Amino acid sequence: MKMKKFKKLSFSDKSITISGYVGVILFVLAIIIPLIYIVVASFMDPNTLNNQGITFDFSKWSIEGYTRVFKDDMLLRGFLNSVFYSTAYAVISVGATLLAAYPLSRPDFVGKKIITTLYIITMFFGGGLMPTYLLVDNLKLLNTVWAILLPGAINVWNIILARTYFQSLPKELREASAIDGASDITHFFKIMIPVCKPIIAVLLLYQFVAQWNSYFDAMIYLDDTKLQPLQLVIRSILIQNTPRPGMIADVQSAAAMAKMAQLLKYSTIVVSSLPLLVMYPFFQKYFDKGIMAGSVKG
Q: What range does the record give for the signal peptide (predicted)?
């Protein structure tokens, strides 16, 4: 806001504006300060970090944590597994979501209100953990990648967002394609999908982040360590390197294990956050448009 316009505001408006700026600044600091702490701590020796706190003296920095992370075969395999799970899950989920949402957006689709109601009911009532586990077991999906990709791939909230976005598009698009002799399938893939890039980008980002941060399904369905995602690998490594009372008699060994656990903790947090930090700038131009258009009630 320009200073001249600000001076013309009333006292109450100035107070609200200043309060808004202060609130935004505090919110940004609450996000940035922990990030800076984690990044700096990942380059520091744990003993120095415990004794002096974080320091910007580069002579005390080290890349030992990152060296150990990238030399660890389990961490590298877990990282690649997480990239695969998140990418495949996002593609499968968004594909199924768009196929389910498009018919519900059509005014001539018979029974769309009943189907939408049935979808919404599943948002409030689930089958529960044990029935879902037994279903996955009966389908022979345990210890396979499909146990991670298929359960939960359909998200009702995303279907509603996509349906609302479809409804916001001009009806003339369908009329024009019908005049050209395009079928519903041709219209969907050649007209609607290219037009819906904003909502597709938003849904892809949603589902990628959701799967990237997920660990519970993998903990329940995967026993094979070669299939486990990064989150479970990090958990296992930290547990292995965390000294427990009565397990280690040597004080030096316990201190070394605690140092290694702290060293790996901050380094793996930074490494596991990199894909999301790299992705977001490419999706940002679609994000605001997609989420705003998809959230308007249709």
A: none
211: nearest Cα among 70, 76, 75, 93? 93
**Count of domains for the chain:** 1
Asked, for residue 146, whether it belongs to a domain, the answer is yes
Residue 91: how many CA atoms within 13 Å on its side-chain side? 5
Q: Residues 121, 270: contact at Cβ < 8 Å? A: no
Domain assignment of residue 61, yes or no: no
pTM of the model: 0.78
Range of the domain at 148: 67-295
Domain with residue 235: its CATH number is: 1.10.3720.10
What pLDDT tens digit does each residue of the chain (298 aa) get?
566 666 666 767 777 778 888 899 999 999 888 888 888 888 877 767 666 667 676 676 777 778 877 777 888 888 899 999 999 999 999 999 999 998 888 888 888 889 888 888 888 887 788 888 898 899 999 999 999 998 888 888 889 888 988 888 888 887 788 887 878 888 888 888 888 888 888 889 889 988 998 888 888 998 888 888 988 888 887 777 666 665 555 666 666 666 677 777 788 888 888 888 887 777 776 666 555 554 444 4
Is residue 161 situated within a structural domain? yes
